[in-house]
Design goal:
- The chain is of the alpha+beta class.
- Helix content is 30%, strand content 17%.
- The protein is globular.
C-alpha cells in the first residue's frame, strides 16, 4: 500500500508521520501515535468506543481514514486530563458513577465533550441525542446522563 506523510495536530502537538494511505485514524492513534485511550469496539461505526474530536466535533475514528483528517486538530481522551488532574467532565463521570467497566467511557466522554462545547447547558434530551451513537453494555445510561448534566453545571463546565 502506498504511504504518504500525514501532517496533523494530535492533542495540541503537531505531528508528521509516514503512514499508509488506507490506515484508519483509530489505528494511527493507537499504533503510530501511541495513544491507547481510544478503543476499538465494533470496527464498523456502531458502538462509539472510538470517538475522538476532529476540530472540536465528535467523529468515529474506526470509520475515518487518517489522511482524511490531514491538517486538522485531533483530540483523544488523553487530551482531557490537565496537569495530572481529571477534567470536570471526567470528574463528573467518576463522581456520578457514570463509569462501569470503563470500555465505552473514552468515547462517551469525547462525545459529551463535543456536545458541551457546542451547548454548555444542554437539555437531558440533547445529552441523550449526543450520546445516542455510543453504546454501553453495563449501565442503563442514567448515570452517564447525570454525569454530563453535572459537568454542564456552571462550576463544572467543561473546556
Amino acid at each position: 500500500m502506498p504511504r504518504a506523510v500525514l501532517e496533523l495536530t494530535v492533542n495540541g502537538r503537531p505531528r508528521q508521520d509516514l503512514v499508509a494511505e488506507n490506515m484508519l485514524l483509530l489505528d494511527y492513534l493507537r499504533d503510530v501515535a501511541g495513544l491507547s485511550g481510544t478503543k476499538r469496539g465494533c470496527d464498523g461505526g456502531e458502538c462509539g468506543a472510538c470517538t475522538v474530536l476532529v476540530d472540536g466535533r465528535p467523529r468515529l475514528s474506526c470509520s475515518t481514514l487518517a489522511h482524511q483528517v490531514a491538517g486538522k486538530r485531533i483530540e483523544t481522551i488523553e487530551s482531557q486530563m490537565r496537569a495530572g488532574r481529571l477534567s470536570p467532565l471526567q470528574q463528573a463521570f467518576h463522581d456520578k458513577l457514570g463509569t462501569q467497566c470503563g470500555f465505552c467511557t473514552p468515547g462517551m466522554i469525547m462525545a459529551a465533550e463535543g456536545l458541551l462545547r457546542r451547548d454548555p447547558n444542554p437539555s437531558r434530551d440533547s445529552i441523550r441525542t449526543a450520546l445516542a451513537g455510543n453504546l454501553c453494555r453495563c449501565t442503563g445510561y442514567v448515570k452517564i446522563v447525570e454525569a454530563v448534566e453535572a459537568a454542564a453545571e456552571p462550576e463544572g463546565t467543561s473546556a
